[in-house]
Amino acid sequence: MGQADVPLRQTFQVLVHKVSGGSLGSIEGIPNSFVNIVWQVRIPRVIFAVFIGMALAVSGAVMQALVQNPLADPYILGISSGSSLGATFAILIGFGSGSIFAQFGLAFCAFLGAITASLAVLILSSVGGRMTSMKLVLSGSVISALCSSFSSIIVYFANNAEGMKTVTFWAMGSLAASSWSKIPILVIVVITITVFFLFQYRILNTMLLGDEAATTLGVPLSRYRRFYMILTSLLTGVVVAYSGMIGFIGLIIPHIVRGLFGSDHKRMVLMSALIGSLFLIWADVISRVIIKNVELPIGIITSIIGAPMFIYIIVKKGYNFGN
Amino acid sequence: MQLKVQDLHVSIGKNDIVKDVSLLVGNKQFVGIIGANGCGKSTMLKSIYKSLKPQKGSVYLDNLDVLGTAPKKVSQKMSVVGQFNELNFDLTVFQMVMLGRTPHKKLLEADNKEDLEIVHNALVRTNLTEYKDRSFLTLSGGEKQRVILARAIAQQPEFLILDEPTNHLDIRYQLEVLTCVKQLKIGVLAALHDLQMAAEYCDYIYAMKKGRIIAQGTPKEIFTEELVAALYDVNCKIYENPITNNLSFVYQL
């Protein structure tokens, strides 16, 4: 699959050899380029898919509970437009393109944009007392609109066709930037925050009931909301910085999981994490094989597979969007 | 367990909604609050159960300073059946009632046998055992209200606050809900809109108008035709119902 055709047998040999630290199997007779393709390109890419899929599905699930809105996704609180602004800035003004430094600069700017935007949303929604889910969503839209218009200004005045293409491609999301060097940060952030949310199921469940009922059950939501929001922003920020904006997973996977396993977060967070990972691995595979020698932006594939899956859940399981 | 509310004052924006209200619910007493829409009943209850912050006043549940204590601790003693609110996500009846155990659980503590038993008992008390696995959102208004009551019971409260618990319910459900609450034999503070029900179920009643308490007493003491006229701006005739020996009300414009 992909642009280079590495036989399955050789792929397996490389895997065994590398994973066992060279003690098992042998990679003699396999061209060096194949070893590199498997070990330096494809394996990191699969690991990326696992953790990015997990992160998006988990933060989607948490975000939907957080704002009590089944339409929420990880990007709803201004993260997408904030990181787009950061990325646009990096690509069109900041660091030029091509060098490794530019790649790092892009990721860093996107992360910075995401975090800044979600902090702005957080502050805006806390103005005038208690933070409610409605205020959060509204502040999210306002900040999004603001960031998008700034991005547009940059794009409008930038005379850089190549850069604009990069921006567009980035906005559609891709796992192409995966590499071993980025994996530690990604894995640590995703695992830590996911595990944390796995143990928060009681609070996530009471969140579904709304502020008042949660208070009477001893859970003051506004405090938890702020904290959860910072964590999901961090999670999504890292993901967006490394892979651009992969749409649909954060919105749809939580709904698919609810359709199959119910809304109780005791199971829901875990299943979202697992199904999110699986889904993104296969979406990435498909994005690379569906048209020979062309890698489609993965965001297109997640929608194309996700939508029918979702329709199936609605029709077969009688799932009604949580309503 | 007794609830003592003193000089409670709540304003929202520039409007004073609750003005220096003091009231007392004795041990295991069923106390009602009556008054027209917008008289401040709900706002007062909300500030008692910590959903709103009052500007002034104190609320004590025996020796527990309700306003100055963390919600978790308060919710171990006191549960609330609020006015109906819609859910955006579905849970089963069982999961919904299990949420009532939240205040008694540590962060990582799993639900144990005892919790299951408590939830089962709450479902039995509210006649919901057959609904256990139904999805909450498919239930009728009356059934939903009973689920919320079951959740409040699963909290194993020593005190219960009800905000118009029989709103939108059919007659049978109204009777079932109030009878069920009465059988809990704990202190109850309830805002009620049906005077006949209030007269029948309450041990003591406070009447509220424009944020103040304007009358209080046992049902037989408090219900006069003048008071009902003042509270609701209607003409009212009160008579002793020959079948139940309780008060009955006839209203006219």
Description:
The complex is a heterodimer of chains A (323) and B (253). Chain A is mainly alpha-helical. Chain A contains 13 helices and no strands. The radius of gyration of chain A is 21 Å and the shape is globular. The mean pLDDT of chain A is 82. By secondary structure, chain B is an alpha/beta fold. Helices cover 32% and strands 28% of the residues of chain B. The longest helix of chain B has 14 residues, at 141-154.
Widest β-sheet, arrangement of strands of chain B:
6-7-8-3-9-10
Q: If you compute it from the alpha carbons, what radius of gyration of chain B comes out, rounded to the nearest whole angstrom?
A: 18 Å
The residue ranges of chain B in which pLDDT falls below 50 over 5 or more consecutive positions are none
- The H-and-E topology of chain A, N to C, reads as HHHHHHHHHHHHH
Reported for the largest beta sheet of chain A, the result is:
none
Within CATH, the superfamily of the domain at 55-246 in chain A carries the name ABC transporter involved in vitamin B12 uptake, BtuC
> What class do helices, strands and sheet pairing of chain B give?
alpha/beta
**Tally of domains of chain B:** 1
Gap between N and C termini of chain B: 41 Å
Question: Which tags fit this structure?
Answer:
A: 323 residues; ABC transporter involved in vitamin B12 uptake, BtuC; 13 helices; B: 253 residues; Rossmann fold; four-stranded antiparallel beta sheet; 12 strands; globular
